[in-house]
Structures are given as C-alpha cells and as structure tokens.
C-alpha cells in the first residue's frame, strides 16, 4: 500500500492513532469515494497446496475506513503486535458481501461473493 501511494498527494498521518496506518490528504476525507483515486483494491493470495493459489480481492471500502479526523486508515492489522505470531487480521468489513464456505472433506475454507437474500450457486465458490 505504501509503495502504491508513492508520488500521490497523501501523507502518513502519524498523529492519528485510530489504526496503526493512517494517511491524510490535502483536505479531510469525508467518504471512501474521496480516496478512491489514491487506492486500489487489495489482493491477498493464499496457497492451497503446490498447484493452486486462491486470490481474495478486497475493494477499497473493504480494507479502508475514514477516521474521525478525516484521514483514511488501513483496516488490516499486524498479528505479531497482538500476540498472533505471523498471522494478520483483516477486519469484518473485508468480509462484506462474502459467504464463507467450509469443505469438511478437503479440510479447506474458502469464500464466494454473496447476496444475503439467496444462497450462491456451487460453481462460483473459491476454495
């Protein structure tokens, strides 16, 4: 994220302690739409064996939030800072519009885009 912000008119907001990483613009941000020209969707890649990799794409509204100071903050936390060793924590906003899928036979977990009004079809699942 920091590399992607290089050369853009966004600076680290060290005085904002809402989350570990926050940035400020030329003027306070009022919505995620205000920051959409500076940030891209975040892609996380998970290995599920030596053959396949699954990608979890998080739209900007799923990993960023606007602080009360008008800054934009990263909603992904370093797990080592809270005693989780090398695990990271993504916030509940990252899972909006996703249904978690459990495959007990393969002992895997995955997700699929979801419409809470109906169940997804099995061919759209990413496990």
Automatic annotation (TrEMBL):
It holds the Pfam family TAXi_C. GO terms for molecular function: aspartic-type endopeptidase activity. Gene3D superfamilies: Acid Proteases (2.40.70.10). One of its GO terms (biological process) is proteolysis. It comes from the Eukaryota. InterPro entries: Aspartic_peptidase_A1 (IPR001461), PEPTIDASE_A1 (IPR033121), Peptidase_aspartic_dom_sf (IPR021109), TAXi_C (IPR032799). Residues 1-112 form the Peptidase A1 domain. Belongs to the peptidase A1 family. This is Peptidase A1 domain-containing protein. The lineage of its organism: Eukaryota, Viridiplantae, Streptophyta, Embryophyta, Tracheophyta.
């Amino acid at each position: 994220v920091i590399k992607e912000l290089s050369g853009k008119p966004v600076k680290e907001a060290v005085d904002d302690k809402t989350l570990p990483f926050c940035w400020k613009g030329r003027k306070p941000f009022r919505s995620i739409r205000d920051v959409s020209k500076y940030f891209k969707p975040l892609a996380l890649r998970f290995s599920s064996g030596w053959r396949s990799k699954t990608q979890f794409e998080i739209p900007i509204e799923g990993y960023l939030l606007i602080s009360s100071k008008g800054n934009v903050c990263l909603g992904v936390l370093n797990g080592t800072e809270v005693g989780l060793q090398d695990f990271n924590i993504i916030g509940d906003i990252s899972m909006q519009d996703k249904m978690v899928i459990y495959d007990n036979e393969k002992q895997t977990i995955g997700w699929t885009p979801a419409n809470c009004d109906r169940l997804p079809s099995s061919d759209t699942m990413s496990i």
